[in-house]
Amino acid sequence: MDTKRIVFVGVGGQGNLLSSRVLGEAALLAGIPVNVSEVHGMAQRGGVVESAVVLGGALSSIVSDGEADVLISFEPSETLRALGKCSKETTVITNVISLMPFTVMVGKGVYPNIKEALELIRSKTKRLIALNADALAQEAGSAMAVNIVMLGALAQSNTVPVTADQIKEALRQNLKPKLWDINLKAFDLGFEAAGKI
């Protein structure tokens, strides 16, 4: 199979690393060779967290500039920050709800205009799936399920050779049973929302 490179970006506490692990394990369930990498950064302080999942037997999990087939971002300014990983062939799946950095909150920085940011992303990539993952996570029953909403949107995008059922099984393997219902609902809501975009 062709190599597929998926990059996840967000800030500490958004579940980036769980998402990449779940996708990697779903690939194993599908019999697909996979490499997963993590860059934690300042995760404990709300800093940037990036991970990559490379499907298809590549020797490295590094995704160089312009190589991402899919960029999944849990926060819009992080989507902009990672745009260099994308090309005109990349599908971008992004949350549209911002988490204001400390510098913006204390008046030392300016947060980008979301509408302008989405237009820029759309102009530089093949496809943009932008959704309010925060609202969908809340609807599922937990604000912490944004990452799972985004996995549902990924499954709907048909950009990876892994099925929704394989991702759901990997979720079950990685979560305590008491968390299954909320997270599976979050996944389904993300799947449905992406299908309408």
Structure in words:
The chain is an alpha/beta fold. The protein has one domain (4-195): Pyruvate-ferredoxin Oxidoreductase, domain 3 (3-Layer(aba) Sandwich). 42% of the residues lie in helices and 18% in strands. It is built from eight helices and six strands; from the N terminus they run E-H-E-E-E-H-E-H-H-E-H-H-H-H. The protein has helices spanning 16-29, 76-81, 102-105, 114-124, 133-140, 146-157, 164-174, 180-195, and strands at 4-11, 34-39, 48-55, 70-73, 91-95, 127-131. It has a six-stranded mixed beta sheet, sandwiched between helices. Helix 5 packs across helix 6 and helix 6 crosses helix 8 (180-195). 46% of the residues are buried.
Short description:
The chain has helices spanning 16-29, 76-81, 102-105, 114-124, 133-140, 146-157, 164-174, 180-195, and strands at residues 4-11, 34-39, 48-55, 70-73, 91-95, 127-131.
Spatial shape: globular
Approximately what portion of the residues adopt beta-strand conformation? 15-25%
- The Cα radius of gyration reads 16 Å
Distance between the termini: 27 Å
- Quickly count the domains: 1
H/I helix tally:
8
Low-confidence stretches: none
Largest sheet features: 6 strands, mixed
Query: Whole-number average pLDDT?
Result: 90
What CATH calls the topology is Pyruvate-ferredoxin Oxidoreductase, domain 3
CATH architecture tag: 3-Layer(aba) Sandwich
Q: What is the top-level CATH class?
A: Alpha Beta
Annotation, overall tally of beta strands: 6
Strand line-up in the sheet with most strands: 2-3-1-4-5-6
Please estimate the helix content.
40-55%
